[in-house]
Amino acid sequence: MCGKDYFKNVIFVTTMWDEVSEEVGSERKQDLRSDFWREMINLGSTSHRFQGTTESAWKIINFLAERRPLQIQREMVDDHLPLQLTAAGGAIINRLFVLWSAMKKFQKGTKR
Q1: CA 53/CA 81 separation, integer angstroms
Q2: What's the pLDDT tens digit per position in 74-89?
């Protein structure tokens, strides 16, 4: 819905570093990056450690603030499009129409 270019805006944040040793935490993070998050990491997503401090939180927030705006943000702000005319809005409207049509078809079948 947002386009593949925007995986760069996704940040996986790991927590509870104070609960495990550095070695165990690093191993778990590597498992996540190479298995569960692999496709998104390959498309530009990143991972960061949250250390449970305000400074750590701001570091993550500031990193995110430097990312590119989403396509829907550009369409609505720069192009002044209403939600329903954006690519994301159109996709949602189309999906709702498909669901509505299926519901109507189901209702007709149950009335017999």
Answers
A1: 39
A2: 899 999 999 999 999 9
Distance of CA 44 to the CA centre of its chain: 12
The neighbour count for residue 101, using CB atoms within 10 Å, is 10
Residue 72 and residue 112: Cα distance in Å, rounded? 43
Burial class (CB in 10 A: 0-12, 13-18, 19+), 86: buried
Structure tokens, 107: 């209702």
Q: What is the pLDDT of residues 46-83, one digit of tens each?
A: 999 999 999 999 999 888 877 777 788 889 999 999 99
Q: Tell me, what amino acid is at 11?
A: I
Residue whose pair of structure tokens reads 């954006």 in the numeric block? 86
